Amino acid sequence: MLLSPYPTNAERIRVAALWFWCVLVLIFLVVPIFVPVPLSFNSGSFFTFPLAGVSTRWYEVVLGTPRWRAAIGNSLLIGFGTTILATVLGTLTAIGLSDPKFPGRRFVVPLLISPLIVPVVVTAVGTYLFYARIGLANTYGGIILAHTVLASPFVVVTVSASLAGFDRNLMRATSILGAKPLTGFLRVMLPLILPGVLSGAAFAFVTSFDEVVVVQFLANAQQRTLPLEMFTGLREQLSPAITAAATLMMGLSILLLIVANLLARRSRKNAGAASE
Amino acid sequence: MKSVCRTNLLALAGAAIICQLQPVGAEELTIMATGGAWQAALRQAWFEPFAKKAGVKFNEQEYTGELGKIKAMVETGNVPIDLVTVETSTVLQGCDAGVLIRIDYSKVADRSRFLPGTALDCGVGIDVYGDVLAYDTTVLKEAPTSVLDIFDTKKFPGKRAMRKAPAQNLEWALMADGVPIAEVYKVLGTPDGVDRAFKKLDTIKKDIVWWDAGAQPPQLLASKEVVMTTAWNGRIQSAIDQDKRPFAIVWDNQIVEYDMIAIPKGAKNLDLAYKYLAYVAQPDVGAQLGRFIPYGPVLSDSTPFVPKDVLPKLPTAPDHMKNYLVGDVEFWGDHGEDLVKRFNAWLAQ
Amino acid sequence: MSSIAMPTTKTWISARDHSDSLRPLALAAPLLLLLLFSFGAPIVALLSRAVYEPTIANALPLTIAALRQDSGAGVPDEAVFRAFAIDLKDGQAAGTVYEFAKNLNTRLPGARSQVLRVARLAAQDQAITKEAMIKAAPLLGEEKSWSAIRVGTNRFTSFFLLSAFDLRWTGQWTIGAVPADQAVFLRVFGRTFLIATLVTLATLALAFPLAYLMTNLRPAMAAIVLVLVLLPFWTSILVRTAAWTVILQKYGILNDLMLWLGVTSDRIELMYSRTGLIIAMTHIQLPFTLLPIYSVMRSVQPSQLRAAQSLGGRPFTVFRRIYLPQVMPGVLAGCLLTFILCLGYYITPVLIGGASDQLISNFIANYVNAELNWEMAAALSFVLLASTLGLYITMTRYLGLDLFKMG
């Protein structure tokens, strides 16, 4: 696909260079992610190679202590809650914004990107002062809402980018053909903008999953998340336990992504079979 | 469980929030501390014995040691914390900002039993630690003999680490520049003295790696990133004792500092909080912490109760108290903000 | 682009009735309301502290009245001092004197302990004289102290905003720079924008070719690459930063590798340097730049490119004239995201950057958490927010860029 059916030499060189560069980029992207893996088997308590010895000591810490298990559970709960809420709200907003008739865009856009710009510690204090007054501080709902505020701009941005390539006439066509707006959205628009929606969802998840500052203010001892656990520990002891936790999360994510891929391929096959 | 506000996610969508306050059963005390090995030591030495003795439930929370969150709690009038551990300089800030209450010492202990500078208006001392110099004995052939050797790049070439803050570093700079220990804060109070301290720091600026978190100095030594570092003595000691690292501590010209405990304004279980402070301020109880982490007691009458094998590791051991400076809280209350700004400007240049 | 086939915006609006503009608004309403109420309002309230600071005015009601009688500019007379003493005594009783002393200390370094000393004296001795007060607090005998107090009695203040630009009032009507050894924020703002720009360009150089390759791979291969791109998201920033520490440090993996390969002859200092910081930030931001580009590239019809090429377009021309305009929304979205996010970094600079690589968020967090000076934090945040929004609006206005591009 990169090469035309009858490639010239210049074309071959260009494609080879592209491959070479991309392999380097992938190495740059992935290798640092795997560095913590061997460190998580370190029997000493420092972040250095060579390892002091091999042990599963830190895995016992992470899996054996209720604190770490609760932290992982909280992070996943808050992360997925945020992802769902932010993706739904963000996608709706992006669709609304993409309509040329949207009134007052000038005032809406600064509001949408401000959560990305305002230093998160200021957001955390402001949110806390507000949430504490309405009884949302120290609740899961409050943390998810606060993370949704931080995460939904990502969804709006990525979905908007996808919508830029979307031909609105398609939606008019569906309505002319008698489809309800929702059907038109699900059958025509959503499949086309899905890459944007999914990358927005990925951003939303990571925003919540990496967030420590807002959680520091809004969470109580029961709602402690994984990053918060690591961050507060950092002051006392930068222990390899955090690399063990990271390795576990990564294993889980690879598993999830593979399962999702298999499911997607199966449904694609089914769809293909149905259409034939 | 404490009285927790429960929100119903469905109701939330309609912006209606159901907030139920549950009745509180047994007495509870909530403390916020800075976590890690130190908090574990506090737990074993004091939290658990007190909970058992007073028949209360002890809740622990962790934070980064900075008062921003407590200020936010106090502003909203919803303070679920009864006690908080803080550094000395933080006590002063919290006091000034109206975040911490002023301690009624008649409910704690006779103020004169505390070491000078450990019974502050808004905070009660709980332990003594030392700002010291540490190095890896396998890296440095010749051992440094004083903290001030950190300024000697000829004899000890290579990177060295210092805490990224003006406090302690400016004092050491003046001491290294020949100011007698007794006059350090007097000199540092004058513009010329400040210039002099920064000029001394200038001489090693390009060789300094700055650390923020207390866990970094042992890590920097372990990775051989630096040949020597300033550090809190407990961190280095635990790397020596627990991780069998070949580190050594230099005590000469150490700066002695205190950890404090304070009560945030609006704390709900005030009486119980005072009961806890009074409990820890007993001579024998006050000495317990040293068994779990090498930090010394702040009560002058606690020393006899410190276990014999712990004593030589403490900052207050007679051997370590030949040349030392006690950090001046009042000085840093006055000049902290200014010097931090100047320090940041200096770093950025 | 797709809009070519559509009537212009204007005819659209006039052709339809008014109620049609309500549907897009209704779609966006839930998020906009959430942002407005749980983000916009509290943040505006917090940022307003940059200009509204009533502590000194609240602490000195009598002194303010007395100062109004006293028309002189320098050190006021006995009456003002008497009022000042009563105000301090009341503050001491109410416990507000500490807050006042701290606040004054921000404007008048060294004032804190002197004011507290006078307050203690005033509480004991009702009839304390001007002379005794100046003896206890030498600063009160100086002209600059009283001009600081006079300025401070105004509830609305420009002090913090000026400080954010390294400026201050030097006289009643003149503004000048703060002393060079106190000037820090302009440099930090400049550095923050510089590092954000460099990281954005670096991520673009890495992400664009990879995204292009991914769109041209077989679905199975593309999925595998996508997994590799998404993998970092499952690793917390703290862990990734720690991993970079292990790689970059002097006896770390990268130095070992370069020595072994003979690229360098000596170990180089990458930790606590700007190079190290930019490498680590580029790594963390790469997926943020890449994913929007990828999602847009996927929607480009390859048939168009082939058509252009078959019509005799040279590859570069086809790329520039046909491909680039179509993927531009994704490129801009990715770059703007990364740029804006870089402005807010603060954990990575602390752990990997050197002392001269700290960004503005580090300072803001410090004012919020450690110094408890929320006014200064609000002022710096306001400047950051205003300059970024200004930059964004300028870009949308003059370059036609938009994060939320219309279809």
Would you kindly provide a written description of the structure presented here, covering whatever features stand out?
The complex is a heterotrimer of chains A (276), B (349) and C (407). The radius of gyration of chain A is 23 Å and the shape is globular. Chain A has helices at 9-34, 36-39, 57-64, 66-98, 105-117, 120-133, 140-164, 169-176, 181-209, 213-218, 226-236, 241-275. Chain A has a domain at 63-244: Orthogonal Bundle (MetI-like fold), CATH 1.10.3720.10. The mean pLDDT of chain A is 84. In chain A, helix 3 crosses helix 4. Chain A contains 12 helices and no strands. In chain B, strand 1 (28-33), helix 2 (36-54) and strand 2 form a beta-alpha-beta unit. Chain B folds into 2 domains: 9-128 and 258-320, Periplasmic binding protein-like II (D-Maltodextrin-Binding Protein, domain 2, 3-Layer(aba) Sandwich); 130-256 and 330-348, D-Maltodextrin-Binding Protein, domain 2. Chain B has helices at residues 9-13, 36-54, 68-76, 88-96, 169-176, 184-188, 191-202, 216-222, 233-241, 270-280, 283-286, 329-348; strands spanning 28-33, 57-62, 83-87, 124-136, 160-163, 208-211, 228-232, 247-262, 324-326. Chain B contains 12 helices and 9 strands. Chain B is an alpha/beta fold and 349 residues long. In chain B, strands 1, 2, 3, 4, 5, 6, 7, 8 and 9 form a 9-stranded mixed sheet that branches. The relative contact order of chain B is 0.17. The model of chain B is unreliable at 1-24 (pLDDT under 50). Chain C folds into 2 domains: 55-156, no CATH class; 185-399, Orthogonal Bundle (MetI-like fold), CATH 1.10.3720. Helices cover 69% and strands 1% of the residues of chain C. Chain C has 20 helices and 2 strands. A two-stranded antiparallel ribbon of chain C has the order 1-2. In chain C, strand 1 (167-169) and strand 2 (175-177) form a beta hairpin. Chain C is elongated. Classes of the chains: A mainly alpha (276), B alpha/beta (349), C mainly alpha (407). At the A-C interface, helix 1, helix 4, helix 5, helix 6 and helix 7 of A face helix 1, helix 2, helix 11, helix 12 and helix 13 of C.
